[in-house]
Amino acid sequence: MAEERRQKQCSVTLPTESMKAMAESVGVGQLQEESCAALSEEVSYRIKEIAQDALKFMHHGKRRKLTTSDLDNALKLKNVEPLYGFQSQDFIPFRFASGGGRELHFYEEKEVDLSDIINTPLPRVPLDVSLKAHWLSIEGVQPSIPENPPPAPKEQQKVESTEPLKIVKPGQEEESTIPGKSQGAITADGKGQYLKGLIRLKPRSTHELSVEQQLYYKEITEACVGSCEAKRAEALQSIATDPGLYQMLPRFSTFISEGVRVNVVQNNLALLIYLMRMVKALMDNPTLYLEKYLHELIPAVVTCIVSKQLCLRPDVDNHWALRDFAARLMAQSCKTFSTTTNNIQSPWLDEKTQWTTRYGCIAGLSELGPDVIKTLILPRLTIEGARIKAVMEGPVVSNIDKIGADHVQSLLLKHCASVIYRIDYGYLGPMLCSHVMKARTQAALQAQQVNRTTLTITQPRPTLTVSQSGLCGSVGQRTPSIIKVPSSLTLMSPRPGTPSQPSPPATKYIVMATSAGASSTQQVITLSSSQSASPVTSTVPSATSTLQPLVKLESGSGPGLTGSRPMQKYIVVSLPSSASSSLETKSSVLPTSISSNPLEAVMKLDRSESPGASTQSPH
Amino acid sequence: MAAVQGGLVDAVEEKDIKTEPSSDGIGNNNANDGGPLSASPSSSASAGSNKSSAGAPEDQQTLLAVLQFLKKNKLTESVDILRREAGLPEDSLDLKGGDSSGLLSCHHHLVLNAHLTETFSPTAAGEDQPDVNVVLSAYSQQGDPKLYPVYYSGLKRFIESVLDCHRAELSQVFYPLFVHMYLELVYNNYESEAKAFFEKYTGDQECYYEDDLRILSSLSKREHMRGNETLLDFRTSKFVLRISRDSYQLLKRHLQERQNNQIWNIIQEHLYIDIFDGMPRSKSQIDAMSGSLAGEGKREANKAKVYYGLLKEPEIELPLDDEDEEAENEEGKPKKKKPKKDSMGSKSKKQDPHAPSQTRIPLPELKDSDKLDKIMYMKEATKRIRLGPDNLPSICFYSFLNAYQGLTAVDFTDDSSLIAGGFADSTVRVWSVTPKKLRKVKSAADLNLIDKESDDVLERIMDEKTASESKILYGHSGPVYGISFSPDRNYLLSSSEDGTVRLWSLQTFTCLVGYKGHNYPVWDTHFSPHGYYFISGGHDRVARLWATDHYQPLRMFSGHLADITCTRFHPNSNYVATGSSDRTIRLWDVLNGNCVRIFTGHKGPIHALAFSPNGKFLASGATDGRVLLWDIGNGMMFGELKGHTDSIYSLRFSRDGEILASGSMDNTVRLWDALKAFDDLETDDFTAATGHVHLQDNSQELLLGTYVSKSTPVIHLHFTRRNLLLAAGSYNP
Description:
The complex is a heterodimer.
Chain A: H1 2-11, H2 16-25, H3 33-60, H4 68-77, E1 94-99, E2 102-107, H5 114-119, E3 130-137, H6 154-162, H7 183-199, H8 211-225, H9 229-241, H10 249-265, H11 269-284, H12 294-306, H13 319-336, H14 355-367, H15 370-377, H16 381-393, H17 399-425, H18 429-449, H19 460-468, H20 472-475, E4 508-513, E5 553-554, E6 569-574, H21 577-586, H22 592-595
Parallel strand pairs in A: 4-6
Antiparallel strand pairs in A: 1-2, 5-6
Helix pairs in contact in A: 2-3, 3-4, 8-9, 9-11, 10-11, 10-12, 11-13, 12-13, 13-14, 14-15, 14-17, 15-17, 16-17, 17-18
Chain B: H1 2-19, H2 24-33, H3 41-53, H4 56-72, H5 76-86, H6 92-98, H7 100-120, H8 125-136, H9 147-161, H10 164-171, H11 174-187, H12 191-201, H13 210-218, H14 222-225, H15 229-236, E1 239-244, H16 245-257, H17 261-270, E2 271-276, H18 283-289, H19 318-328, H20 333-349, H21 368-382, E3 395-401, E4 407-412, E5 418-423, E6 428-432, E7 438-441, H22 444-448, H23 457-460, E8 462-468, E9 470-473, E10 480-485, E11 491-496, E12 500-505, E13 510-516, E14 522-527, E15 533-538, E16 542-547, E17 555-558, E18 564-569, E19 575-580, E20 584-589, E21 595-600, E22 606-611, E23 617-622, E24 626-631, E25 636-642, E26 648-653, E27 659-664, E28 668-673, H24 674-683, H25 686-690, H26 699-702, E29 703-708, E30 716-719, E31 725-730
Parallel strand pairs in B: 1-2, 3-31
Antiparallel strand pairs in B: 4-5, 5-6, 6-9, 7-8, 10-11, 11-12, 12-13, 14-15, 15-16, 16-17, 18-19, 19-20, 20-21, 22-23, 23-24, 24-25, 26-27, 27-28, 28-29, 30-31
Helix pairs in contact in B: 1-2, 2-3, 3-4, 3-7, 4-5, 4-7, 7-8, 7-15, 9-10, 10-16, 11-12, 11-17
Region (Disordered) (chain A): 142-185, 578-619
InterPro entries (chain A): Histone-fold (IPR009072), TAF6 (IPR037796), TAF6_C (IPR011442), TAF6_C_sf (IPR046344), TAF_TATA-bd_Histone-like_dom (IPR004823)
Subcellular location (chain A): Nucleus
C-alpha cells in the first residue's frame, strides 16, 4: 500500500503547461519545451522543500491543517519574501475551469464594490480568547456533562446499529504502527485476531436505568405532554441537547409510538403535536443516533402525516400544520438516515383517498426535495388539478372536502412552482420565480396607478395553434421564441437558443410587459450594457438604460395536450420602453408589434386554459 | 545574581580545560567570549560538537580542519586562541596540508562546518561552496549506473537467503545503502537511472523512513544536493548500525567473494558498524531502536556516567514552618510534622550515590520568598493524594475558547496559580486561575510615594487599578512556540518564530530581555527547576543554555541533525534533554556541554519530554503517537506505550511518579501506570547486560484510562502539588 503511494510521490512534478502559463503571466512569451521541463522540475523540487518546512510550522502550531501562514513562515526560513495577500484561515477555494483543451485552476478574485463594503454594517467583533475549566475526569470517571463528548459517540452508536457484529473495542484495532515483517509481528497479529474473535459476540445490553434516569424520564415525558408550555419548552430543550440520553432512547421511542397510536384513535390533536415535537427534539440531539428506533418512530410520524382524521373537528382545527410538521420530520429522517426507509408514496394514488391523506402525502413528498417533486408529484399534477377542479367548481359536496382541496391546491402551488423553475432554468429558477412574483405584485400596483394600457398580444392564438399541430417549421422564425439576455447573464442556459431551430414540442409563449417609466425601479437583474451580442443571436441589446427581464414561468397542463408533455410555459419579460427601439431594429425574433408598445403582463391569459395550472401562486 | 553567574563561567572554564584540554573548551570559549566569531557562532559551535563523538586521533584532525576553516575566513584571533588552547604547534597547519589522508578525513568534519554556515549565514555560503563540493565529490567514484540495481538486488538476494537469525540484522543495511547509492547516482547525473533505482527499491524500505524517502524522492538533480539539509545530514553523519559479529562476517565474506566493491566502499565510507559479540538481535529488537535519521546511537555514546540523582533539598528552618502551621491550623500540627521530618530526613541522611555534588553547577541561593514557597510546597505535599491504578487522578481541563487555532503553547506555574498561553498572533497571555487577580507594580513616580518602611510594602507597590484576570504580553513578531514560567513565578520565558527568546516580568508585565542568538525559529524553551538558567532550542539545531542575566548563551549544545523540537531540564538542573526532528533524544551535561546520552527509537519528530520526579527516567512522545520510556542510568529503552493515534504534545509524571499522563492531538488524555513500567524494568537485568532491549507489548495493561475531550487537542499537562491533573488545549469546533 505504501509502495504505490511512494511511487506517486516520486514522480509528481508540475506540468510544463503550468510553466508556460506562468511565464506568459510575467510576459515571457516563447518558452522552449526543454526550459519548461527543467523549470518544472526545479520548481517542483522547491515547492516540495517549502511544503516540508511548512509542515514543521504546522506541527509546532499544534494544528492539523496547513495554513498559508505556515507557508509564509517556511519561505521566511529560506530568506524568501513571503507571499502577501493570501491570509486565510480556511482553505483557499480554487475555482476550476476548462475549455479549449486546457484545464485551469484559478483563484477567484471578486471585484468588490467599495461603497458596498462601507455601507454594510460592520461584522461582529470576534470574541477574545478566554479560558474555561471543566472536569474531564473525576477520580478516573468521566462525568457526562456537555463539555465532555457523549459517553458513546454518535459514530459508535451508528456502528452498533448498522454493523452490530463488527464492534471492536476502541483502541484494539490499532495494533502497531510499524507493520513488521517478522515472526514477532505475526504473533501480535494473531493475538489481535484472537481478541477480536472473542469480542465478535455482541454483548447483550441490559437497559437498566438508574433512579435518576428514571426520574428524569418521568419528568421529561410528563412535561412534554403536560399542559405547561414553559415546562414543555424546557423539556424539549433538554431532549435536544443533553448528551447522555442514549440509554433512554428505547423508552422514549416506545413512549412516542404508543402515544401516537392511542391519540390518533382518540383524535387528540394537541397530544399528537406534542409527541411530534418530541421526535423533532430527539432528532435534533447531535449525540443520538436514531437508526435503531426508526421502526417505531417512522410509523408514528407517517401516521401523523397521512391519517384520515387527526382531530375531532377536521373542518375547524388546524391539523394541516401537524401534517406539515410531521412531513418535515419525515424528510429530515429520510435525509439523515439515507437508507431504504423512504418508501412512503403508496397510499395517495387511490381515487378514493381523502383530501387529508392526500395533503399529507403531498406534503411529505414535497419536503423530500425537488427531485422527489419532479419524479413523483409533477407527473400527477394534471390528475390532481382535475380533481381539485372537480371539487372547487363542481357541485358543492361538503365543506371539509372543499377546504381539503383548497389546502392541497395551495400546497401544490407552493412546492411545484419553484421546482419547475429549477428544472427549466437551473440555478436561477427559484430566484426567477420569486422575482417574477415580486414583479407581478408591483405590476399589479402600477396597473392601478398608471393608465391601464392593457394590450392584447397580437398573435398569440395563431402561434398556439400552429405549434400544437406540430407544424413548427412553417412558422419559421416566429415560434422559437427564445429570449436571450445580453452578455454574462444567460437566462435560458439549458436550452440552446438558435432561432433557426424548430421549437420544442412543449410550446412557449412570450408575454412581454414593458411598463413605462416606473419599471426602472424594479431593479432586479442588472444587465451590463455591453453591445457585443453573443454569437447566439436573438439577444436583446440594451441600449441605454438597464433592462429588467422579469421572467415568470407558469406551468400546468392544458387538458387538450398529450400526456407526455403536459406543460406549457409562459414567459413574461418586462422591458423598459427605452429599449424597445433598438429591439425593433435588431431583434427579428420578437414581433415588433409587441415590443413597440408598452406592455403589461397579462397573466390572466392562462387562467382560463387550465384550471389545474392556474398558478397565480398566492405567496 | 551576577556574582553567581561569573562564578559559574569561571568554574566551568577551568574545569573544561582540566578535564578535556584538547578540544572541549573551544566551543564554550568561542560561545562565551564572542569576539571575532560572533558573526558565525554556529560554526564554532559545530567545531565544539564534533569533539564528543570523535576519537583521539580524529580529534587532532578535527582541530586542524577547524583551524583551516578559521584561517580561510581570516579569523586570525580565533586561530591563535584555538591553537594556544589546544597546545598545537604553530606549524601544524602546514603539516596538515601535505598529509593527504588527513585531508580526506577532515573533509568529513568540515562538511558540518560548511553546511552549518551555509544554512545559517547565507552570506558565507559562497565561500564554503568549494568545501561542499569536495565533500560531494566523495560520490564521484565512477561505477556503471546500470550495475547499481544489479549490485543492490544481488545483496538483497544474498540477505534473503541467509539464516533467519541474521537476516533481520543484515536487513538494516538496506536503507543506508539504498540512500547512498541513490545519491551517488544523482550526483553523477544519472537522473533517469536514479529515478528507476528509487522506484524499484523504495518499497523495500521500512515504513518509518517514509518521511526521509519523501524528501529524497524530490531530490533528483545534482544542483539540488547543494544546500539540501537532509542530504548533508546523510553525508556528514555516518549511519550507525549495530550488527552482531557473526552477521557482519557473513556480509563481509559475501561482498569480498563477489568483488562487490561498490557496496563495500559505501559501507566503509558512510556507515559506522557497531559490532557486538553474542546473539544477533531479532527484528522487533531492531525495530524498537531504529528509526532515527542517522541510525542507532553508538553504544559508547551512552556509556558516560550520568548523575541522575536529585540534589539535596536545602534545610529550611523549622521555626518559620511551625509558625506558619500554627497560624493555619493548630490541631493538625503534631500530625503533620512527623511525616515531614521523615521525608526530609531520608533525603538528607545518606547522599544518593547517583546525585551530583551540590555545587557541581552553581545554583542561585534561595531567597526568603523561595523558602516560603518551599514551605508551601511541603505543606501541599502532605495533602497530596497517593495515586495508583486504583486511585486515578481527577483531570481538570482548561479549554481556550475562541483561540481560532492560534494556541501554540501553554504552561502552568508549579503551584498552578497562573496559566500562560502562547499564540500564533505573537502574543503571550497570562491568566490567573485563582481568585487573586494579576496586578502590575506601580510606576516609578508612584513608587516614590510609598512608605518603604511599612510592613505591607510588597502589597503597597502593586497597582490596584491594573488588577485583572488576564494580561497580554506583546513583543514577539512571530508565533510563540515555547513558553515557560520561572519556578519563583516572577518571570516568564517565551520563544518565538522570530528567533528570540524573551523574558517577561510578571511583576510589571513587561519584557525584560530579548535573548538573541538563534537566528531561526526557536521551537521550545524551558526554565531550570532551580531558576536562573534556561535552555532553548530551535530550527538551527543548536540548543543553547542561557542565564537570565547574560545576553549571550553560556553553552551551546550541538549535535542534532535536525531541528530541536523540545527541551527539558533535568530535575537536578545538571542535565538537559533535547528532542529533535532527527528522531533522537539527547541528554547534555550542563557542566561541560557534552552529549551524554543518545536515545533512538522514535519514528517521528519528538514533541514531548518528561523526566520522572526522581530523575531516573525520561519519557518521550513523538508524532508517531508512541511514548517511549528511557532509563537514564544505563541509557536503555524500557517501555513503549502505544495507544495514541496522533502526535503527542505533552507528557507529565505525577508528583510521586506513579502515573504518567500523556496528551495528544487525538483529543485524548491517557494515563499510564508508570510504577508498573518501572518495576518491569528492574526485574529484567539481562537486557542491561547486553544492551539489547526486548520490549513486551504490554501497553494495554499499562494504560489506566483514556479520556476524550471534545475536539480539543491536549497540548499541555500539569500535575498540581496535590496531584490533580490539569490539562489545557484550545477548542477547535
